[in-house]
């Protein structure tokens, strides 16, 4: 979350992807850094143990949200 906020503060479009388990942490980080409504894309947790086919499916599913975030910046 913080990386995305810092990049956008420098004028660099960013699209943060967060797993559902870390939404509270992400929102707290955004709030602590002055961006309480910072938008992000959401994917299911966990990612580290997901099979390659599942990761590909999730990437395709989240792509529209990532594009919206990048194009709205």
Give me a quick take on this structure:
With 73 residues, the chain is mainly alpha-helical.
Structure description:
The chain has one domain (2-72). The protein is 53% helix and 8% strand. The chain has 3 helices and 2 strands. The chain has helices spanning 2-9, 23-32, 52-72, and strands spanning 17-19, 41-43. A two-stranded parallel sheet has the order 1-2. The radius of gyration is 13 Å and the shape is globular. The model has no long low-confidence stretch (mean pLDDT 95).
Secondary structure: elements and pairs:
Layout: H1 2-9, E1 17-19, H2 23-32, E2 41-43, H3 52-72
Parallel strand pairs: 1-2
Q: Which radius of gyration do the C-alpha atoms yield?
A: 13 Å
SSE order: HEHEH
Task: Supply the helix-strand structural class.
Answer: mainly alpha
Main sheet, how many strands, which sense, barrel?
Answer: 2 strands, parallel
> Which runs of at least 5 residues are low in confidence (pLDDT < 50)?
none
Number of helices: 3
End-to-end C-alpha gap: 15 Å
Tell me the overall shape.
globular
Percent helix:
40-55%
Rounded mean pLDDT is 95
| Total number of strands | 2
Number of domains: 1
How big a fraction of the residues is strand?
5-15%
Strand order of the largest sheet: 1-2
